[in-house]
TrEMBL record:
Protein name in UniProt: S1 motif domain-containing protein
PROSITE patterns documented for this protein: S1
InterPro entries in alphabetical order: Exosome_cplx_N_dom (IPR025721), Exosome_RNA_bind1/RRP40/RRP4 (IPR026699), KH_dom_type_1_sf (IPR036612), NA-bd_OB-fold (IPR012340), S1_domain (IPR003029), S1_RRP4 (IPR048565)
GO molecular function: RNA binding
Lineage: Eukaryota, Metazoa, Ecdysozoa, Arthropoda, Crustacea
GO biological process terms on file: CUT catabolic process; exonucleolytic trimming to generate mature 3'-end of 5.8S rRNA from tricistronic rRNA transcript (SSU-rRNA, 5.8S rRNA, LSU-rRNA); nuclear polyadenylation-dependent rRNA catabolic process; poly(A)-dependent snoRNA 3'-end processing; TRAMP-dependent tRNA surveillance pathway; U4 snRNA 3'-end processing
Location of the S1 motif domain: 81-159
Localization per Swiss-Prot or TrEMBL: Nucleus
First-listed, main subcellular location of the protein, grouped into a coarse class: nucleus
GO cellular component: cytoplasmic exosome (RNase complex); nuclear exosome (RNase complex)
Keywords: Exosome, RNA-binding
Length: 290
């Protein structure tokens, strides 16, 4: 058993916000948000006795005269245009069922994928018979939300070469509310790995593959160098410790935690120790606020 005293860790300044700083306001259910009746009621709020009250625990967001509360923990609802990561759960007639960390499995139709060969053509009977050759149960895919039906079913699409099957990497599930909203979801980080920050909370880390060597539905079985595997493992543990302490996850925060863990010369496995997780998380927040 390894024991490390808190006094042996590098000193960290107290995480107290400066006066006048505009930080998100955290509220709990039943807490009064505003007594100004001119504000419009948004998601996560309700009116009671003429005042606006929070119905969920989360951060208050104000856009013009609209006030909403974003929950700290929530089930992914989906939005058109979101880039997400999912896992194939079932192969059906002309479509795949995909687990996307939502209340319902999403739907990926054969007609909405970029078929092998690069040519733009309609799927035929031969393509339908070979669906398991493209994607089978357990495969991970990167897709885009194309449509949301009235009952909340997400219909997916992979009509571009940047979407398709994922291989040679690791998957990590975090709360969707912790993923920073960004149009660009795929990032090649300076450390030598590619990270897909799925809007649904599924984060996928993989080695950087040149575009000319990538293929939408083939699996690369080449051996990944040890240093790249260690980098992927370090990134995974950094994202895990950020999520454990409810810190927003973005390329900037992940690289800050990654660089800090490297400077402190922590081993990859050390990043799973509670005291080191807390130290890295607190220092990362402090660096982000400076």
């Amino acid at each position: 058993m390894e024991i490390q005293l808190a006094s042996e860790l590098p000193r960290v300044k107290a995480m107290v916000g400066a006066q006048g700083s505009s930080r998100p306001r955290l509220v709990t259910p039943g807490e009064v948000i505003s007594q100004d009746t001119s504000f419009m009621r948004g998601h996560g709020t309700y009116m009671e006795e003429g005042v606006q009250v929070a119905s969920v625990a989360g951060y208050v967001t104000r856009v013009n005269r609209l006030i909403t509360v974003t929950p700290l923990r929530q089930v992914y609802q989906g939005a058109v245009g979101d880039t997400i990561v999912g896992r194939i759960t079932q192969v059906q007639n002309n479509r795949w069922k995909v687990d996307v960390n939502s209340r319902l499995d999403a739907e990926l139709r054969l007609s909405n994928i970029h078929l092998p060969g690069g040519e733009q053509r309609r799927s035929n009977l031969e393509d339908e018979r070979g669906m398991r050759g493209l994607l089978k149960n357990g495969d991970l895919v990167c897709v885009e939300v194309q449509k949301i039906t009235d009952d909340g079913l997400l219909r997916l699409a992979a009509r571009s070469t940047k979407f398709g099957k994922l291989s040679q990497g690791t998957l990590l599930a975090v709360s969707p509310s912790l993923i920073v909203q960004d149009k660009q979801r795929m990032h090649d980080l300076p450390c030598g790995a590619r990270v897909v920050f799925g809007a649904n909370g599924y984060v996928y880390i993989t080695p950087i593959i040149p575009q000319e060597q990538s293929s939408s539905y083939t699996v690369n079985f080449e051996e990944v160098p040890v240093d790249i595997r260690k980098t992927i493992g370090r990134l995974r543990n950094c994202i895990k410790l950020l999520a454990h302490h409810s810190i927003m996850i973005s390329p900037t925060s992940v690289m800050a935690a990654f660089d800090l863990s490297t400077e402190q010369e922590y081993e990859v496995k050390d990043l799973l120790k509670p005291n080191i997780m807390q130290h890295i998380a607190m220092t990362t927040v402090q660096m982000m606020n400076e």
